[in-house]
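To the structural biology subgroup,

Please find below the input and predicted structure for Peptidoglycan DD-metalloendopeptidase family protein, which we are adding to the shared reference set this quarter. The sequence is reproduced verbatim from the submission form. If anyone notices a discrepancy with their own records, reply to this email rather than editing the shared folder directly, so we keep one authoritative version.
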Amino acid sequence: MLARVAAAPARATVVHASRAEERDELAEDDGGASGLRAAVAPERQQVGMPLDAGRYRITSHYGYRVGPLGGGSQFHTGVDLAAPLGTPIHVVADGVVTYVGAGKDGRSSMLVIVEHEIDDRTYYTWYNHMYASDLYVSVGQQVSVGDVIAGVGNNGNSTGPHLHFEVHVDDELTTTEPLAWLEEMSTP
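Predicted structure (tokenized):
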């Protein structure tokens, strides 16, 4: 399962070649009867991995774990991907940057949040543990799948350089398993 996620969508240099505009031009209503618009389904948005394949290893999964800095068992709301400092972090889908700054809602260090519209649903991806000097986006910025938004850091409550990556399924902080979500979103 994981190999498939890392293999196909992990390419950071994704070419987003939507032909939606071409289809819309072809399907323009010129007064005659045409079933082309109804017959052409919209393309699903492309989704990729936040780090290049082969450049990271998973050091902590989503779910309950023994806290690496003490404190007993706790729920880990994302997945930790260890990588060298400065490794490019890519946005996983087209979206709009909604937050850049100090951690919030219990997250430490620097945080980038991107809002995505996929299949008529809103999702938020959270990227955490970067240094302020390695944040390359600003609030309101439109980003495309594969764009570099930051560099891996070791800031805040961290035991080594890594990306803490979360997926939120609403604006109420409800998280889902990030790797399963990436796989689901990359399936046509």
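Summary notes: Residues 90 and 148 are 4 Å apart (CA to CA). The chain is about 15% helix and 30% strand.

Regards,
Lab coordination
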